[in-house]
């Protein structure tokens, strides 16, 4: 996302997509998540409260829940 433009690719995504972001992140914001979700069919946005861009390390329990949530849908 930093050097390439993927806007034309987003609507072609056919896999289950969860867009996660840390609410305290200074790298990707809620607006970025909304923008991405608006281009990906059926994308779900999942905010991580009180987390930065290091949300996986800051909240491993929620990370596991999110991953298991996708696995249980399949």
User: Tally of extended strands?
Assistant: 2
Side by side, the strands of the main sheet go 1-2
Largest sheet: 2 strands, parallel
The string of secondary-structure elements, in order, is EHEHH
Which range does the strand content fall in? 5-15%
So what's the overall shape?
globular
Strand-pairing-aware structural class: alpha+beta
Total count of helical runs of at least 4 residues: 3
What value does the Rg take, in angstroms? Answer: 13 Å
Number of domains: 1
- Span between termini: 27 Å
Would you give an account of this structure?
The chain has one domain. The protein is 38% helix and 14% strand. The protein contains three helices and two strands. The chain has helices spanning 30-39, 55-58, 60-73, and strands at residues 18-22, 44-48. A two-stranded parallel sheet has the order 1-2. Helix 1 (30-39) links the parallel strand 1 (18-22) and strand 2 (44-48). The termini are far apart. The mean pLDDT is 91.
């Amino acid at each position: 996302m930093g050097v390439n433009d993927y806007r034309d690719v987003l609507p072609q995504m056919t896999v289950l997509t969860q867009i996660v972001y840390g609410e305290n992140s200074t790298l990707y914001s809620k607006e970025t998540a909304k923008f991405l979700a608006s281009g990906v069919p059926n994308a779900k946005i999942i905010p991580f409260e009180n987390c930065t861009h290091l949300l996986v390390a800051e909240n491993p329990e929620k990370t596991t829940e999110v991953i298991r949530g996708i696995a249980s849908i399949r």
